[in-house]
Amino acid sequence: MEYPSKLIEDAVNEVSKLPGIGKKTALRLVLHLLKRDEDQTEALSNSLTAMRLNVKYCQKCHNLSDNELCTICASHKRDQSLICVVEDTRDVLAIENTAQYKGLYHVLGGIISPVEGIGPSDLQIDSLIDRLKGSESEQVREIILAISPTMEGDTTAFYLQKKLKPFNLKISTIARGVPIGGDLEYADEVTLGRSILSRIAYE
After folding, report:
1. Would the CA dihedral through 110, 107, 98, 147 be positive or negative?
2. Cα 126–130–132 angle (5° rounding)?
3. CA-CA distances (angstroms) from residue 110 to 14, 71, 87?
């Protein structure tokens, strides 16, 4: 693709590096930014720079935060007896959007994946153990493993279960089954099988 300006070409190349954005979409976005007022484009640039420089990880749960502790860990309204273990911040956001969970979180920063060279030591597992040994030890009653039901996710959950066993806590996992509005004929065998095995009383 021929560009009328080297500066535009450079901008398109950078924007197209974002996930899900190809060169054509990147070009549309770049041309849109050129049409906007200069102060609007500058505000976007400044907010991205500030985000990159100032967003940090919560010292307690490793969620993204503006401060040393994220708003969830700093809140006195959260149930201190529950810790939900998730893969990354996107999972925290997804669970928070349900407005059904009022406990705390622990973000692993990934899952065990030998193929990608990610082992337990690359994840925030030791810090979870430290939380359970430290000041939170008497408060925590249950660990919820909210990890994706993939082979790597199941491996991570199994590893965590073994590491958490000495603490004599209730260890649970999120329910897995047929989604609301889904047809049984389209459900895969593993999901359908787990739904049958994990059946609940009809109310």
Report:
1. positive
2. 120
3. 25, 22, 5
d(CA 135, CA 25): 50
Q: Is the pTM of this model over 0.90?
A: no
Residue 37 buriedness (CB in 10 A; 0-12 / 13-18 / 19+): exposed
Amino acid letter for position 193 = G
Residue 152: phi, psi to the nearest 5?
-70, -40
Residue matched to tokens 């349900």: 98
* Residue 5 burial (CB count, 10 A): 11
Phi then psi dihedrals of residue 170, to 5 deg = -75, 125
Q: pLDDT per position in the chain (203 positions), as tens?
A: 788 899 999 999 999 999 999 999 999 999 999 999 999 999 999 999 999 999 999 999 999 999 999 999 999 999 999 999 999 999 999 999 999 999 999 999 999 999 999 999 999 999 999 999 987 778 999 999 999 888 999 999 999 999 999 998 999 998 877 777 777 777 788 778 877 777 777 66
Query: CA separation (Å) from 35 to 12, 14, 38, 44, 87?
Result: 15, 18, 9, 14, 39
Cβ distance 108 to 87 under 8 Å?
A: yes
